[in-house]
Design a protein that fits this description.
By secondary structure, the protein is mainly α. It is 63% helix and 5% strand.
Length: 465
């Protein structure tokens, strides 16, 4: 018999059962469901809503169920509609009448809202650690390449000289934002919905603060309607994960380019590449490509849940059952991506000579040449025009700015002097950009230290949870 039998007198069509059921995917919430039920039962007993004898029987039964599930025993009824009904039915089988009292002062509406909050809170902690680990890989790699000069790009055209360290630390900065977004999501969702009932609370003298404290929440959701109908925390998490995947995808794209013969800036470790079934020379960056592709999958999860939620009246609607698969899929995808992306970057080999040669061949010091003239007193727009004509001449002759003779420089502008050559050296161009956030080794070293201080503080945040 269905746990909700009574108003519904006839058997549910088997096709409706299949369509309605969620146990196939919400079974992963078993631990959260049981922990929430134990806290609820303990509160009911403490408030005298059920007897202590019944409370003790319920707690012992739930502990046994949790233990069996943790041991991998297949004890859930596959015909149960969802994890809540499966656990309650199993509890009643084991302890009898006390099991039927567990659902006093509770609805599946506030129960599932609780389960999702508990689950997402734990998953955020896992993601937080993975993001910090990836950030550490980036900063460690950057520290090794403080002096590795490479082209910086705009429009995928060589633009100005930077260092590989500077480039990698841009992603470390993105990870800083990702980490703090996860923390913000955790902070906003750290409220307990139990006690909201189906939508209007309960007439029983429950102690919501007690239940919240038992489950590690900082407080309770203030409005019972909002408590059961809110999935903002799921939407916020999916948005945060989408942005994080954007960052992985952008780096993946660059790794794919860098490992191509056309760029030749980097080489993947064989453990993080694949070959071709027909072309023996191939070494394919499948990990990076999959990370780039799976980004769209996470976007889809966010879009799906936004679409589900956008037109729902208060309070709970069955549509909201669709939150779980979207959240679970995005979490699984991002955790897997970070788990494999981190060692892929850690083992990535960079070809410093090829990077430097590309920087030398692309007129990346043209802006520095214009700045040289500005420092001699020429207005920037005039200096810009002078250097633009010099670059045009160099391209026609197959030269670079550094290979022009002093006479050629001075024929373009008499302000050029012999000190133009050291001013145009790539290393000098990079070292001159030493303002906060710039590519000069001293500026990047300071940025690395900032990120390490940040990471240490965020690790303490996680340890405090």
């Amino acid at each position: 018999m269905k746990l909700w039998a009574g108003r519904i007198q006839t058997d549910t069509d088997s096709r409706v059962n299949d369509f309605n059921a969620s146990l196939a995917f919400d079974a992963r919430l078993y631990r959260e469901d049981i922990e929430g039920s134990m806290a609820h039962a303990a509160m009911l007993g403490a408030r005298g809503i059920i007897s202590q004898v019944d409370t003790d029987a319920i707690l012992a039964g739930l502990e046994g169920i949790l233990r069996d599930l943790e041991d991998g025993k297949d004890i859930l009824d596959p015909d149960a509609e969802d994890i809540h009904m499966a656990v309650e039915a199993l509890l009643t089988q084991r302890v009898g009448d006390p099991g039927r009292r567990l659902h006093t002062a509770r609805s599946r509406n506030d129960q599932v809202a609780l389960d999702m909050r508990l689950y997402v809170k734990k998953e955020i902690q896992t993601l937080h650690g993975l993001a910090l680990a990836f950030q550490k890989t980036l900063t460690d790699k950057a520290e090794v390449h403080l002096d590795t000069v490479m082209p910086g790009y705009t429009h995928l055209q060589r633009a100005q000289p930077i260092t590989l360290a500077h480039h990698l630390m841009a992603y470390a900065e993105m990870l800083r934002r990702d980490v703090t977004r996860l923390e913000d999501c955790h902070r906003r969702m750290d409220l307990c919905p139990l006690g909201a009932g189906a939508l209007a609370g309960t007439t029983y003298p429950v102690d919501r603060a007690d239940t919240a404290a038992r489950l590690g929440f900082v407080g309770v959701v203030p409005n019972s309607l909002d408590a059961v109908s809110d999935r903002d925390f799921c939407l916020e998490l999916l948005a945060d994960l989408s942005i994080l995947m954007v960052h992985l995808s952008r780096l993946a794209e660059e790794i794919i380019l860098w490992c191509s013969w056309e760029f030749g800036f980097a080489d993947l470790d064989d453990a993080y590449a694949t070959g071709s079934s027909i072309m023996p020379q191939k070494k394919n960056p499948d990990v990076a490509e999959l990370a780039r592709g799976k980004t769209g999958r996470v976007f889809g999860d966010l879009t799906a849940l936004l679409t589900v939620m956008k037109g729902l009246p208060l309070a709970y609607n069955k549509d909201m059952q669709e939150d779980k698969e979207a959240v679970f899929d995005a979490l699984d995808t991002v955790k897997t991506a970070l788990t494999v992306f981190t060692p892929m970057v850690e083992t990535l080999t960079f070809k410093s000579d090829r990077m430097r040669r590309a920087a030398a061949e692309g007129f990346l010091n043209a802006t520095d040449c214009a700045d040289y003239l500005v420092k001699k007193g020429l207005p920037f727009r005039e200096a810009y025009g002078v250097v633009g004509r010099l670059v045009h001449t160099c391209i026609a002759q197959g030269n670079t700015l550094e290979t022009l003779s002093l006479e050629e420089f001075q024929s373009a502008c008499p302000l050029f002097a012999p000190d133009v050559y050291p001013a145009l050296a790539l290393d000098a161009c990079v070292r001159a950009r030493k303002a906060d956030g710039g590519p000069a080794p001293e500026a990047v070293r300071a940025h690395i230290e900032q990120i390490r201080v940040f990471a240490a503080a965020r690790a303490l945040w996680q340890a405090s949870l």
